[in-house]
Write a structure and sequence with these properties.
One of its GO terms (molecular function) is alpha,alpha-trehalose-phosphate synthase (UDP-forming) activity. This is Trehalose-6-phosphate synthase. It holds the Pfam family Glyco_transf_20. The chain has helices at residues 29-33, 55-67, 79-87, 98-117, 127-148, 165-172, 189-192, 198-205, 216-229, 275-283, 285-297, 325-338, 360-380, 397-406, 420-428, 442-447, and strands spanning 2-8, 11-15, 21-25, 42-47, 90-94, 154-158, 177-181, 210-213, 234-237, 240-248, 256-268, 302-309, 346-353, 388-391, 409-412, 434-437. It has 449 residues and is α/β, with parallel strands linked by helices. Strand 6, helix 6 and strand 7 (177-181) form a beta-alpha-beta unit. Helix 5 crosses helix 6 (165-172) and helix 14 crosses helix 15 (420-428).
C-alpha cells in the first residue's frame, strides 16, 4: 500500500449553515498532480481543515473519511477528481488545534519557508513560536501515520509543510519505506543557511529513503546544503547520500541511541501533466463552441494570456517593491507607452487565482494589481476596448482550455515548476502561439530547445 501524506486531504470538511458537516473535493494542485495514478491502493493522511469540533464530531469525520461514505456533488470538470477520490482506499484526518494550525501553516510554512524557498530572506519576530508549532504539527502527523501504516508500507510525504516527518516516522517504524517530494524550488546554500533550524530540517529529511525534487538544480542545491551543513556525518554516493543517522534512545525520545549508517537517494523527478486530457477537451463540443465565441470576441486583437496565483513571492522585484502580477501589468503599460501602434490591437487577459486571502501581504498585492489595472485602462482604453482584462478568480477546465487555444501568447512568471506552460503547449496544437517562459521556472529546463 501507499500512504500519501500531505498538509491537506483530497476531501475538504466544512460546517454548513445549520451546523452539519459537509464534504467536498479539495481544489489543490496535489490532487491534480495525482490524477494520472492508477491501479494503486492509496491511503491519504492530511489535515481535515476544520476546527471547533467536538470529540464525537471528530470521530464521525474519521469514520466517514475512512469508509469513504462521501457523496459530494461533482461538476463535469471535477469528474477526474471524483475518480481519484473513489480510487483512494481511505482518508485518515489529522485534527489540529486552531492556534497550532495557524502558526504552522500561515506562520512557519507561509511566513518563513515559502518565501525562503523562493529566495526571499525576511525572518520576522515570532518565528520561534511558529517553529514550535511546526514541530508539534509534524508530531501530530507522525501519530496519524502510525495509526494506519503497516511495517512494509510505502509512505509518500509531500512538500515543505512536513519536512520533519520522515525522521519522526523512522524513529517510530524503522522498516517503513519513506519518500518525500518537494513541490517548490529548493534554494541555494547561501539562502538556505540563513534558516536557524536548517540542521533539524535536513536531519528530518535525511531519514527518508528517497528525496525527490522537480529538477536537477533543486536536488543539487539540497546535496550542497547537506555536505556543507551536516559536516562529517555525510558522504556523497551516486545519486544520493550516506550518513550516520541518529537512533532513538531505548524507550523512545530523540537521539542518544547511537547511530546507524543510512543511505538516501536524491534525484529529480519533473512533474508533468496528462496532455491527452487537454487534447480531448479541445475536441469537446463545449470547448469548440467557446473557442468560436472567443475568436469572435477578440477578432482583430491579439490576446496575451496570464494565468498566475496571486503570490507576492513569485515574480521579479521592482524598485517600488511590486512583484509577480503587478510586474507583468507594468510590462503591459510599458509596451503600450513605447509602441502606441499596439493600442487597440492587443489585450492582456490576466487570470489571477486567489490564494491565502487572509494574509496581509496578499491583500496588498491584490490592491496594487487593481490600482495598476485601473491606471492602464484609464490611460489607454476607449469605449469598447480595455487593454487589461483582469479576473480575480479561477476558471473552469473547459474555459481554460479554450483560452489556451485562442491566445496569441502566454506569459509565465519565474520560479516554481509552472505546469501552466505544459498546459498551454498541449492546447496549441496547430496554432502558433508564443510561450514567454522565465528561465527561472522549472518547466524551462524541460522545454529548452
Amino acid at each position: 500500500r501507499v500512504v500519501v501524506v500531505a498538509n491537506r486531504l483530497p476531501v475538504r470538511v466544512q460546517r454548513g449553515d445549520n451546523g452539519e458537516l459537509l464534504y467536498s473535493i479539495s481544489p489543490g494542485g496535489m490532487v491534480s498532480a495525482l490524477l494520472g495514478v492508477r491501479g494503486m491502493r492509496m491511503i491519504w493522511v492530511g489535515w481535515a481543515e476544520i476546527d471547533d469540533t467536538t470529540a464525537a464530531e471528530r470521530e464521525q469525520i474519521r469514520r466517514t473519511l475512512w469508509r469513504r461514505e462521501i457523496r459530494p456533488r461533482f461538476s463535469r470538470e471535477m469528474q477526474p477528481r471524483r475518480r481519484l477520490c473513489e480510487d483512494s482506499s481511505a482518508c485518515e484526518p489529522v485534527s489540529l488545534p486552531k492556534s497550532g494550525a495557524r502558526l504552522h501553516y500561515a506562520g512557519f510554512c507561509n511566513d518563513v519557508l515559502w518565501p525562503l524557498f523562493h529566495y526571499v530572506t525576511d525572518l520576522r519576530s515570532g518565528f520561534h513560536a511558529q517553529w514550535e508549532a511546526y514541530q508539534a504539527v509534524n508530531g501530530h502527523f507522525a501519530a496519524a501515520v502510525a495509526r494506519v501504516a503497516r511495517p512494509n508500507d510505502l509512505v509518500w510525504v509531500h512538500d515543505y509543510h512536513l519536512m520533519l516527518l520522515p525522521g519522526l516516522l523512522r524513529a517510530r517504524q524503522p522498516r517503513l519505506r519513506i519518500g518525500w517530494f518537494l513541490h517548490t524550488p529548493f534554494p541555494s546554500l547561501e539562502v538556505f543557511r540563513t534558516l536557524p533550524m536548517r540542521k533539524e530540517i535536513l536531519s528530518g529529511l535525511l531519514a527518508a529513503d528517497l528525496l525527490g525534487f522537480h529538477i536537477y538544480d533543486y536536488s543539487r542545491h539540497f546535496l550542497h546544503a547537506c555536505t556543507q551543513l551536516m559536516g562529517s556525518e555525510l558522504s556523497l554516493e551516486s545519486r544520493g547520500i550516506a550518513w550516520d543517522m541518529p537512533l532513538p534512545a531505548a524507550g523512545g525520545g530523540g537521539g542518544g541511541g547511537g547511530t546507524m549508517r543510512h543511505s538516501v537517494r536524491v534525484d529529480a523527478f519533473p512533474i508533468g501533466i496528462d496532455p491527452d486530457r487537454f487534447r480531448r477537451a479541445l475536441d469537446a463540443a463545449e470547448v469548440k463552441g467557446r473557442v468560436l465565441e472567443l475568436q469572435r470576441q477578440y477578432a482583430g486583437v491579439s490576446v496575451l494570456l496570464g494565468v498566475d496565483r496571486v503570490d507576492y513571492i513569485k515574480g521579479f522585484s521592482t524598485p517600488n517593491g511590486r512583484a509577480g502580477i503587478p510586474h507583468k501589468l507594468l510590462a503591459m503599460e510599458t509596451l503600450l507607452e513605447t509602441h502606441p501602434q499596439y493600442v487597440g490591437r492587443v489585450v492582456l487577459l490576466q487570470i489571477a487565482v486567489p490564494t491565502r486571502t487572509d494574509v496581509p501581504e496578499y491583500q496588498k498585492l491584490r490592491a496594487a494589481a487593481h490600482e495598476l489595472v485601473g491606471r492602464i485602462n484609464g490611460r489607454f482604453g476607449s469605449p469598447g476596448y480595455a487593454p487589461v482584462q483582469y479576473l480575480d478568480k479561477s476558471v473552469d477546465f473547459a474555459e481554460l482550455a479554450a483560452l489556451y487555444h485562442t491566445s496569441a501568447a502566454l506569459s509565465i512568471n519565474r520560479l516554481g515548476m509552472n505546469l501552466v506552460a505544459y498546459e498551454y503547449v498541449a492546447c496549441q496544437q496547430a496554432a502558433k502561439g508564443v510561450l514567454v517562459l522565465s528561465e527561472f521556472a522549472g518547466a524551462a529546463q524541460a522545454l529548452e530547445g
